[in-house]
Design brief:
eight-stranded parallel beta sheet; 369 residues; 12 helices; globular; 34% helix; TIM Barrel; 15% strand; alpha/beta; five-stranded antiparallel beta sheet; 2 domains
């Protein structure tokens, strides 16, 4: 069984996409691409550009987002205007004529690539896709499992906790997606282990659902910033030993593998060795525009993860449909499935689906507590 632990469905990005307003969704999108691996171009002549104009350096919250007429374009592009020039960020694949991804698109991609099941994550830029993820999981229960969205900084407030209860008990969602960079919406107001966040971690632990957490490096956006969030989360795990954790995205290469091999500091290893925890193997979404398929650089890093953490902690993901800006869905799977000769057949089975299926209880009734 092949399970993609990192996929998305979403409504057309020109709308609010589950957020209260279109403007809120637009701001989520603009913040996401302030630092992105996606290519940026000047539309007049195709000259390469960057996204520095999207924000004011030193103000890393939403308050620092610049007024550049940021907007949703076509053909996978997000557009903005700076100093009278129009620019486009190729955030989604060029073939995405309209920025929408219904469940049936993901289903067709899965059938073509030979993927049996996917976990639908729910990042703010993609939209607050709690209801849509639940709909997709109801429509295709054998193929899709949904996670819910939350306003990260306020996730421990009563209204948000009630929404989490609804997501688990009524919508039958299997987990919560939490992006640490989502704290930027409120200016990174407190760390993950702040007392006011404690009700969230307690609720998730008691419900027994998965916390799918994606670390960021804000507000400093450097190695120290990343490790500050890791250390705070490590203190959370010390108090919540039964919290089920799915770490979204592979460990940042720029921080921990500058020489092509992973070297993890102790505070990060302590988090990785939490039980129960799984860690994504999802390299093409960030390095598919730099490395050439079949990504031997990524294969070396997978070997490091296997050797240091064990294959049983690793789960393959794609970040579809976003990853197709760099490679096909099948290639995002085949660099592990067809290559990585250092992995045994059993280790490939674990990484490509068995571990994720067991972790999320695929084929079992969703928690009712």
């Amino acid at each position: 069984m092949i399970v993609d632990c990192h996929a998305h469905v979403f409504a057309h990005w020109i709308g609010s996409c589950g957020h209260p307003t279109r403007e809120m969704h637009r701001r989520y999108l603009q913040k996401v691409v302030t630092r992105t691996a996606a290519s940026t171009f000047r539309l007049r002549d195709g000259a390469r550009a960057d996204t520095a104009a999207l924000f004011r350096a030193g103000d890393e919250g939403w308050s620092g987002l610049a007024d550049v007429d940021f907007r949703v374009g076509r053909f996978g592009q997000l557009e903005f205007t700076h100093d009278g020039e129009d620019y486009a960020i190729q955030y989604m694949p060029v073939g995405m004529q309209e920025l929408a991804a219904p469940p049936e698109l993901m289903l067709a991609q899965m059938m073509n690539a030979g993927v049996d099941h996917c976990i639908l994550q729910a990042g703010g830029g993609y939209g607050a896709m709690t209801e849509m993820n639940a709909f997709a999981a109801r429509q295709y229960p054998e193929r899709m499992t949904g996670l819910m969205h939350v306003d990260e900084a306020l996730a421990a407030e009563p209204a948000q906790l009630a929404a989490i209860d609804h997501g688990v008990r009524v919508l039958k969602l299997r987990g919560l997606y939490f992006n640490v960079d989502g704290l930027s919406r409120h200016g990174f107001p407190w760390p993950l282990d702040a007392p006011r966040m404690e009700p969230l971690w307690d609720r998730l632990e008691r419900l027994g659902v998965v916390l799918c957490i994606e670390f960021g490096a804000g507000p400093s956006y450097d190695r120290a910033g990343y490790l500050a969030h890791v250390a705070a989360f490590g203190r959370v795990l010390a108090r919540h030993a039964d919290l089920r954790v799915h770490l979204a995205m592979s460990p940042p290469v720029a921080y921990f593998a500058r020489d092509g091999r992973y070297e993890f500091p102790d505070e990060l290893l302590r988090v990785y060795r939490h039980e129960p925890l799984v860690l994504e193997v999802v390299f093409p979404i960030t390095y598919g525009g730099i490395w050439d398929y079949p990504y031997p650089e990524a294969q070396a890093l997978i070997a490091d993860l296997r050797d240091q953490l064990g294959a049983g902690r690793l789960v393959w993901g794609s970040d579809m449909p976003n990853v197709e800006r760099f490679c096909t869905y099948r290639q995002s799977l085949d660099y592990v499935r067809r290559y990585c000769p250092f992995l045994t057949a059993r280790e490939k089975d674990q990484i490509l689906g068995d571990t994720c299926a067991a972790f999320y209880g695929l084929g079992q009734t969703a928690p009712a507590s």
